[in-house]
């Protein structure tokens, strides 16, 4: 609301430059608006617009004014955010140590967020903490220690929550960072950094019996599933995915409408497609963000969801070689963030909670603005041709 007010206020009051729309602004804002549009199209087609389903997708659109305001300002105004990711990662671990909510199987979370989302957010904050090393300037020793500690804290918090779905992102993100950051570096650097990453991960799992148990559960769940025992953590997800595919085939374009997957659980349980336990848990979520939109809003919703990943991802990818260091680093951080969240969404609905969708939308808006605006160089680049 503050960003929207700034955009509508007289420019002499705000000090912002007039908005000069270019392709980046247009594509990014259309992507932010597309999810809400897809939900409305599907629900109006089915004749039932459900207000509660509009809350989460509207958070994407609400990030558009923030992006536009930051695009008109100078990126140096966000230099104060340098330690925000490290502080966030350290706080995520601190909350688990000070006020944990104990779960089964030696897992913990907070009082305000379930273990999966908590662990995923802590993990990505840790990754962004280490990526912010020497972001705006060459960091001093104390700042470096804090940022390295942020990485360790984020990994530790993720392990404590037992959110193994997020761990899939670790090797993918590591390879991405090595590829981008390794260009032009020495052979020694290219060997030492992967060794350090592998050593750290091996150390974490070596000293954490809970983490080892969570990983070993995957194979045991698969064996049980093949022998007809489908009510395991992985087995329930597989049942829900199979059901989502059936729905997508029968209602491909606009899906079932708002809460369609939720409302169809009993019929699939009655038909024997789902076990009663899987049907009960399916009323809560699909455990896959893409399937959630595909079943409720069809291909229209699925494409809108993909745009939320693809459009920012392409913007960040194209700006990896930005002319200024802060902008190129923001691009790497943004690309890492988008890729990680996409992987998180493979095993859990990341955008069904207002907290997580607001976090994602705000982060991509800030990082996209930072990477597409280069102070004076960026201002010159945005002057329209004569």
What does this structure look like?
The chain is globular. The protein is built from 19 helices and two strands. About 70% of the residues lie in helices and about 0% in strands. The protein has a domain of about 210 residues. The two termini are about 35 Å apart. Strands 1-2 form a two-stranded antiparallel ribbon. With about 375 residues, it is an all-alpha fold.
Overall number of strands: 2
| Major beta sheet summary | 2 strands, antiparallel
Instruction: Tell me the fraction of residues in β-strands, as a range.
Output: under 5%
Structural class: mainly alpha
Poorly predicted residue ranges: 375-386
Termini Cα gap = 34 Å
Q: Oligomerization state of this entry?
A: single chain
Name the overall outline.
globular
- Lateral strand order in the biggest sheet: 1-2
Provide mean pLDDT, rounded. Answer: 88
Query: How much helical structure, as a percent, in the residues?
Result: over 70%
The radius of gyration over CA amounts to 22 Å
Q: What pattern of helices and strands is seen along the backbone? A: HHHHHEEHHHHHHHHHHHHHH
The total count of helices amounts to: 19
